[in-house]
Amino acid sequence: MKTYLDCLPCFMNQALRAGRIATDDEHKIKKLLDEVGKLIQQIPMENTPPETGALIYKKVSEITGNDDPYKEIKEKNIEHAMHLYSELKQKVLESDDRLLTTIRLAVAGNVIDLGVDKEFNIVEDVEIILHQEFAVFDYELFKQELKAAKEILYIGDNSGEAVFDKILIEELGKPVIFVVREIPVINDITFKEAEQIGIDKIAKVISSGTTAPGTILKRCNDDFLEKFKNADMIISKGQGNYEGLSGVNRSIFFLLKAKCPVIAGNIGVKENDIILKGKSNSKLPL
Questions:
Q1: Residue 191 in contact with residue 26, Cβ under 8 Å?
Q2: What fold does the segment set 7-64 form as a domain?
Q3: Fold classified for 71-277
Q4: Which pLDDT belongs to residue 284?
Q5: d(C-alpha 221, C-alpha 224), whole Å
Q6: Cα dist. 254→18, 111, 155 in Å?
Q7: What's the CA gap between 120 and 107, in Å, rounded?
Q8: How many C-beta atoms lie closer than 10 Å to residue 37's C-beta?
Q9: What is the pLDDT at residue 92?
Q10: Are the beta carbons of 78 and 154 closer than 8 angstroms?
Q11: Lowest pLDDT segment from 71-75, 149-153, 174-178
Q12: At what angle do helices 71-94 and 98-109 cross, to 10 degrees?
């Protein structure tokens, strides 16, 4: 997905939020905003938003001296989500369609997004999304590819959200490779959080190699690129991964809540709609 004009003020808002979390030094925050403003002047609109995000959060780290400003917030989100785990598993066991319920829960987890200027209440959002209609619902195609797949590549997004991803992974019934970010960026998941949640016990965890808040193939390592190219089935979680991969020429299932009007418009849905968007199963050249 390209960068839209409405993305530009969002970049500045992200820098300001991250700066305030990283430090209380107003001079450093002002310097950060000055530097991000210069970056925005130079970015090509053809770039995906996560490419700019990588530059912004690198500036946050360099200027504030804090390379993981969202650390405490991530830990609280994970703790809260883990506290809900048993209750959510019970909802799955009691449902008429366990796979669909776990997909809904994975979407519900996608509200834990600190890159978007929106508050969330995960308990309330779970209840809403468990009964909300999908705006895009390629469930039959999803089931077809799942049945045929020998192994699944699951590209993670946010840390607390990964607790909900864990519930879906446990229901897929196939070997899964779970993909994390190379370094901390916003509240996205890395090896550390994946191990904390226990995803390493149910899936093979690898890094994509990217430092961006989304999957940008030209920034990924060779190991991930090989697995991405040859995967039987790919599940991509969240907005950042959608922004980075929506233009890629291969079969991918995008699972997310449209929390941003730009992404909602790009997909052709309304803000706050929930999405299970797939393509036909064909391993096309990247």
A1: no
A2: Helicase, Ruva Protein; domain 3 (1.10.8)
A3: Rossmann fold (3.40.50)
A4: 44
A5: 6
A6: 27, 15, 10
A7: 13
A8: 13
A9: 96
A10: no
A11: 71-75
A12: 160
Per the structure block, which two tokens stand in for 12? 């500045």
- Residue 174 dihedral angles phi and psi, to the nearest 5°: -135, 155
CATH 3.40.50.10880 maps onto the chain at 71-277
- pLDDT tens for 118-156 read 565 778 888 899 899 999 999 999 999 999 999 999 999
Helix spans in the chain (H):
7-22, 26-42, 49-64, 71-94, 98-109, 122-129, 139-148, 161-172, 191-197, 222-230, 238-245, 261-267
* Dist CA 125 CA 244 (whole Å): 25
Q: Are strands 274-277 and 152-155 parallel, antiparallel or unpaired?
A: unpaired
* pLDDT band (50, 70, 90) for residue 188: very high
What is the side-by-side strand order in the sheet with 253-257?
134-137, 274-277, 253-257, 233-237, 152-155, 176-180, 204-207
pTM of the model: 0.93
Count of alpha carbons within 13 angstroms of residue 57, beta-carbon side:
24
Question: Across residues 270-286, what is the average pLDDT?
Answer: 75
